[in-house]
Structure formats: C-alpha cells, structure tokens
Amino acid sequence: MNLDEYRAFDATELARLVVEKEVTPVELLTLARRRAADVNPALNAIVIDIDEADAQAADPGLSGPFAGVPFLIKDLAQDYQGYPTSCGSRSLSKLPVAEHAHVTRRFLDAGLVIFGKTNTPEFGAKGITEPTLFGPARNPWNPGHTPGGSSGGSGAAGGARNVSAPGAHNGGGAVPGPSGSNRPLGREPTPRLSPFGPARGEQTFGMSVQGVVARTVRDAAGLYDAIVGPTPSSVYPTPTPSTPFASQIATPPSKLRIGFSTESALAPSVHPEARAAVEHAAGILVDLGHIVEEVAPPYDDAALSRDFLTIWFAHLAAEVDSARRRTGAGDDDFEADTLAAAELGRSAGVVAAFNAFERVNHYVKSLSAFHDTYDYLLTPTLAKPPLQIGEIATPSLMRSASRIMAKVHGGSIVTRTGVIDGLVEQNLGWVPYTQVANLTGRPAINVPLYWTGAGSEASGPNVTGAGSEASGPSVTGAGSEASGPSVTGAGLPLGVQFVGGLGSDGGLLALAAQLEQAAPWAHRYTGVAV
Q1: Which of 45, 268, 366, 477 lies in disulfide reach of 157, CB 3.0 to 4.6 Å?
Q2: Which pTM value belongs to this model?
Q3: What is the pLDDT of residue 440?
C-alpha cells in the first residue's frame, strides 16, 4: 500500500484489509507516521508521540474490530498510561498519568494502534485551538485559519487524512465545532453513553462526552459501538443501545419533519455562508422526501448561553485548583484567559452554578416540546466560517489585567471591566449553537455538506414551507480536485448540526448515512497543506 491509497481508505476499510492480510498493522503505522511527517509541521495537530504503538502494531495477537488501524487520541480526558495528559496546559505537561482512561482502553481493545495525542486549548476552554503550550493547530484546508476547538487537533488530523477517525472529547461544541471546520463528521452522543474514568467517572457535571471525529458515518458508528457502555466507575450510566449503531445506519430513516433555524442571540448577524450551509442541507433533505420548515429557536438562546458559561467557569475554577494541588503550579503555568475565567467562576459561587443547573430544566422542556412536532432541529454548526489564526486572541494589555485581577481574586472587578464579557463574545459568538446539546443531554451530529465560497449554487431551495418541491443542488462530485481556498476563507468546510430528542443517537447516524449517500463528502481533497 502506498500513501495515496492509505489516505483514500477509511478506518473500516483499513481494518478489512488487515483481516484479509492485504496490509499489516506495521505497514499502516509506517504510513500514518509518514503522513504525519508530511502534514503535521504545517498543521500542528499531533503534539505528543506514543512510542508503544510499535509494539502494539507488531503484536501477532492484535485483535478487535479495528485491529491494526492507526489512531490518535485527544490530549484531554483521554489518558494514556505513562504519558502526560496536559489538557493543553503547562501546569500538567510534566505529569504522567498512572493508568489508561476507560475510553482509551476501549480504543485499544478495539485493536486501534494509538501513536499520538492531539492538540487542544488549555482545559478545552475555547472554541479555537491555540494553546500557549503547543502553539496553534491549523485548518488543513487553509493553515491560516483555525480548525476550531477544543478538539481542533483531532479535527485537523482527520481532515488531513492522517487518520480517518481520531478520538475527541466534547464539553460544549468540541466535537461538532472542529468537525464543522475541517470536514469530518462529528457526533456528540448522549451524555454518559461513552465512558469517563477511572480518575473521574464524570466531567463537567455530566455535560462532557467522549467520542471521535470521523471521515465516514460507518467509521463513526463502528467506533461508537466499540466504546459505549457503562464502567464500574460510571456515574448515572446511560443504558447501551440494544441494536449496534453499525446496524442502525443500514436502514434509511422514514419521512422526517425537521425544523431549522439560524438565529442566535450571541450571533445576531449570522454570516451569509452559515445560513447558506443550512439552506443547502435543507434542500438535500427536501430532495430526500423529508419535510423541512424554518422555525424560531425552541429555547431562550441568550439565557442558555449565560447558564452554560456560569457552569463552565465553575468547572474551570475547579480544574485550575486541581492542577495546583497535583503539581504545585503557579499562576505562570496557566494562561491569562484561563485564570480570569476561573476567577469569575470562583467569585460567582456555588449558588450561581446551582441556579444555572436548575434552569436547565426549562431548556429540556422547551426542546422536548419542539421534538413533539419535529424529529430534529437543524442549525449551522458555526455562525461564520472558521476564524483566522489569532483573530480572537486576547490583547496583551487585557491578559496582563486578567492576571492581576485573578491574583487579587477580583472576580467582580473582572466582570465590570468587561474582560470576561469580551472573552465570552469572542469565543462563543462564532460557535453559539452547540452548547444546547451538552446542557440538555441531547445527542447531536455535525454533517459536512457545505464549503464556503460556493455562492448561490449551494444556497439550496426555498424551504420555508413544508415539503417544498424545489430541488437542492448536487454536490456529489464537487471539488474532488479542489484547488484550495484563498486567504479570505473561501473553500473552507462549514458543517450543519442536527440536534435530536432524548436517546436518538442511532436515528441521527441513520440520517447522516442517508445524507452521506445523497451528497458524499469523504472523497474531497484539499490543495493546501494536505
């Protein structure tokens, strides 16, 4: 097998070739590392090498549904024994972990050969992947732009076809966001369906999930089949689906009713490309026989964002305190934005976080009422095309002010000066749609159907009424030899998100499989870094 052949196959096909002895795990690992050598200097997606991969690939007893397939895990929440899980922070970068995370063990039990860990922002706290520790990860379609966050390194590695379906972790958009920026499909499963632990049986009060960003739907289905299910350290585990996801994607969904919206309180001026991406997807859905209607957002978007951030900042305060206790880290071992956000969470107090949790019930009820009428909610994954590297970097003066205020525990002062307000607006303003799934415990999926710069040809039909007869554009062969985007951001993937009702994981994957067949995306290559 040569390198072009390697990057043409998804993980499912590579596993089949290993079984049929057309290629060996050692050969695949060599090709994966060659691919990394070609693209990682430009993308900075892989930040830690795992040396044990050689022995694993050479093991004659290697087994599992993905035996011998090269794989990457995220350097956050996906611990590999003997290596640091830095979480993108200097404070943890020298502390090896004592044991594999449960999800890492399940990846290994599936036969995946883990040869590296991917870039992430500090503690996964931003929608971009530009940590001070490792430097920015870059978008494979245009390295001048971000691959998103917090699974930006995984999204870049998957988009560059370094591996077909790297590991990811999501606390508020970390899987859909990078998927929407880089081209892989990103699924956010029902919380607690995929495992955390053993260090902690749950993260971010149950809002975080483990998973992958995958090139194909069948890879996503097969890999989730390999990792879902409770462990002895699970907190309030979710029952494992009775039918494997790989079986569920074989049957197309019957006629669906889908409501779409591009409105967001955090992004009052949604980019025309983001709306075009949704209208394009809606057109394909109509062609497939589904009913598609534009709706008002089914929940209070502004209130949900405030409550999400109240909870998130409280979590970040606990993460910083934990890192200090474990390592003796000082302020210089954390980024200024992290210290400021953590101080805001600390100063708000436990009552604020508790009240935010109480209000989650309202969002759940609102979504439940929506799903009484509609099978899925369709939104943009991002409110605008992927940002340029450094576009929302905090100015040095504000960083200095943040450090001073965090040191004197001036959380209320930080709020009055607008340091955090600006940070919130910058970071969530371009990715405001994905937090609802985490906060309410609903599954969601990003589907990569649209590329920026497509113009009116990809805008899709008018779908404001039910069952429009207008036909959407065909993208089945578009851009297979794409020449690469300009520096203005044209030619970048821009995904759309579907949010399902409680426990609709299999249905979301089945819908994604239907869309994948109608408008294939896996064949597309870029002409920039990859």
Answers
A1: 45
A2: 0.91
A3: 92
